[in-house]
Q: What sequence folds into this?
């Protein structure tokens, strides 16, 4: 029997992903460890299709998406073009959408994005590229959209449609309420969509309110659809789309009725699927220690009972009879899991000298440890682990803070202008401040900061950081500003990591020879700065792991301002007293440019200190609800083994 392209694809993805039993799922999906490996496979599917069509002298019609999700797919296609001769001469493309109104030359336009990531680097014929024009006059818009549809029809429809998914459940810009059979049209963007885009527009007020988008019907007519979703911020909408009922308020659910769709997910985006979150409800499990704890914590939260009160019946009623068979009775299992959680709690994050450490998260020996706290931006240290930082210093460890990036783009122009004017007033002979003042006053939305403006903004963040680290008792020579080069573009889009970034990281570790490293393990946004900062740390650890001193080095990951580890993942829980919570708050306050409505707020409008206090309080409450002692707040860490 001859396989057609759809069969071929599902076989490829099945081999690549874990082929597991599923339940409740209505869309074929494959979960990959990382978005990188997944993106490469998707790029190969596209390349195979292009080549297959070329061999038959046919055109290949691609529907393309923008946003952060497909970036690596385009990067791989460009690589294949350059290194393997993949040609795009037989390719015709139709982009899903464009903001409206939007000029093509605007760096935030999807037009700009597509040329920057794909079209400028491959041999596609310019006349074969179609992207909705964000400058069509309102009078012509209706006809323009009809013509866009007709153009797709005229080339025989879309062979392969690449999609991302918005947190509203939009595909293209088909926001909730979109019709199943909708075609290309203009649409008003949801607030959540605009707030997700605020980051690249330097503030929600600059995000257009409307867009032109292909319709749900246009997308559904594609012969093959692949939707990409990366990171935990997509996990909830992926669950709704894959497991929920088809509904207009989650337009991506319409894909349940398409018979050749694959969702390609990374682990973060799949986190809420039933087979991942609660596999015991789907299949018989291999009960690892981590899975046991996950299941017991889940059961305790579900029943509203502390762990030590869970009964055999609770386990049997909730898909965990297999676990009981392995473990004996609920009584034994409860005590074991309770102790496990109990042993994560310590007021001695650097280890308690002279204490029995067999049931403590950190080692007692090496009473005075050398510690590096890596902070992606100048403030993540105090926001995410200010209390632990405070304790480490107070308990006599040699703490070094390493700010990985300058954080300059998060300083607003108004704030920078204020400092430039002060500097001018203090030093009337310097014309450096004049140049910056003139630049900032004339700066438009499309301008990238000048080098001088960036320097000033970085200096502002340095001074704020030093104020906070001094407050927590750290000498200035233990504060390191790494200014990793990948970040220094002056724009949201950063450079790729280079050897220079890696060397800077390795040199610092090599100089300090730490016993403990803390780093941000916040993977919510796979393309965000935190992820890149973590990647470069992992690369550095890989380079240095054979060094003698690294045998004594333990790595602890904290999470940023946006998420916290799940309770079952926590391996070190550092409680904070009410007074320590206040000290932490105070340290965060020194980062004044990041207070009062910061530029990169996300969809949570609360200030960082409020958000993080809430989060630390919630972790403490979760521990308490599980039956453990009641603390004011807890900072949480997970160990990384390299
Ligand atoms: C982009 C598009 C949108 C995005 C979605 C996810 O052309 O149509 O549907 O795919 O908003 O965006 P990212 O990938 O940035 O999370």
A:
């Amino acid at each position: 029997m001859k396989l057609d392209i759809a069969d071929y694809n599902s076989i490829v993805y099945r081999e690549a992903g874990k082929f597991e039993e599923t339940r409740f799922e209505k869309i074929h999906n494959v979960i990959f460890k990382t978005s990188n490996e997944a993106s490469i496979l998707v790029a190969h599917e596209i390349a195979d299709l292009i080549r297959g069509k070329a061999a038959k002298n046919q055109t290949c019609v691609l529907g393309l998406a923008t946003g952060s999700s497909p970036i690596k797919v385009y990067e791989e296609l460009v690589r294949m073009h350059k290194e393997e001769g993949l040609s795009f001469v037989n390719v015709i493309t139709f982009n899903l959408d464009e903001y409206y109104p939007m000029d093509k030359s605007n760096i935030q336009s999807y037009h700009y994005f597509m040329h920057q990531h794909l079209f400028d680097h491959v041999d596609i014929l310019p006349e074969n590229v179609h992207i909705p024009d964000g400058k069509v006059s309102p009078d012509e818009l209706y006809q323009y959209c009809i013509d866009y549809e007709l153009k797709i029809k005229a080339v025989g429809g879309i062979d392969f449609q690449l999609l991302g998914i918005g947190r509203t459940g939009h595909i293209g810009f088909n926001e909730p309420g979109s019709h199943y059979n909708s075609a290309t049209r203009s649409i008003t963007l949801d607030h959540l969509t605009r707030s997700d885009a605020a980051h690249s527009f330097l503030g929600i007020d600059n995000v257009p309110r409307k867009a032109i988008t292909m319709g749900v019907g246009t997308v559904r007519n594609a012969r093959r659809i692949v939707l990409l979703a990366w990171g935990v911020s997509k996990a909830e909408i992926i669950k709704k789309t894959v497991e929920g009922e088809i509904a207009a308020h989650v337009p991506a659910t319409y894909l349940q009725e398409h018979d050749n769709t694959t969702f390609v997910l990374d682990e973060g985006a799949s986190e809420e699927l039933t087979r991942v979150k609660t596999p015991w409800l789907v299949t018989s499990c291999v009960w690892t220690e981590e899975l046991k704890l996950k299941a017991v914590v889940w059961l305790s939260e579900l029943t509203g009972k502390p762990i030590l009160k869970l009964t055999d019946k609770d386990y049997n009623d909730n898909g965990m009879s297999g676990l009981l068979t392995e473990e004996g009775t609920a009584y034994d299992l409860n005590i074991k899991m309770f102790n496990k959680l109990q042993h994560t709690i310590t007021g001695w994050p650097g280890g308690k000298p002279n204490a029995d450490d067999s049931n403590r998260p950190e080692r007692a020996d090496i009473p005075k440890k050398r510690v590096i706290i890596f902070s992606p931006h100048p403030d993540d240290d105090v926001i995410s682990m200010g209390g632990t930082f405070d304790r480490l210093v107070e308990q006599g460890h040699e703490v070094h803070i390493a700010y990985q990036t300058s954080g300059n783009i998060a300083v607003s122009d108004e704030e920078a202008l204020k400092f430039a004017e002060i500097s001018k007033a203090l030093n009337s002979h310097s014309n450096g401040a004049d140049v910056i003042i003139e630049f900032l006053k004339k700066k438009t939305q499309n301008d990238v900061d000048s080098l001088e403006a960036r320097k000033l903004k970085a200096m502002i963040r340095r001074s704020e950081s030093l104020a906070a680290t001094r407050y927590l008792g750290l000498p200035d020579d233990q504060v390191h500003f790494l200014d990793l080069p990948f970040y220094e573009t002056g724009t949201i889009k950063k450079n790729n990591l280079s050897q220079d970034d890696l060397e800077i990281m390795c040199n610092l570790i090599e100089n300090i020879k730490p016993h403990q490293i803390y780093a941000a393990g916040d993977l919510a946004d796979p393309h965000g700065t935190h992820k890149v900062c973590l990647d470069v740390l992992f690369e550095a650890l890989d380079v240095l792991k054979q060094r003698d001193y690294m045998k004594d080095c333990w790595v602890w990951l904290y999470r940023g301002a946006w998420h916290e580890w799940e309770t079952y993942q926590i391996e070190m829980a550092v409680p904070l007293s009410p007074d320590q919570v206040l000290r932490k708050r105070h340290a965060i306050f020194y980062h004044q440019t990041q207070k009062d409505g910061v530029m990169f707020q996300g969809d949570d409008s609360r200030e960082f200190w409020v958000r993080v206090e809430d989060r630390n309080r919630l972790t403490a409450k979760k521990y308490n609800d599980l039956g453990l002692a009641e603390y004011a707040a807890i900072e949480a860490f997970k160990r990384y083994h390299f």
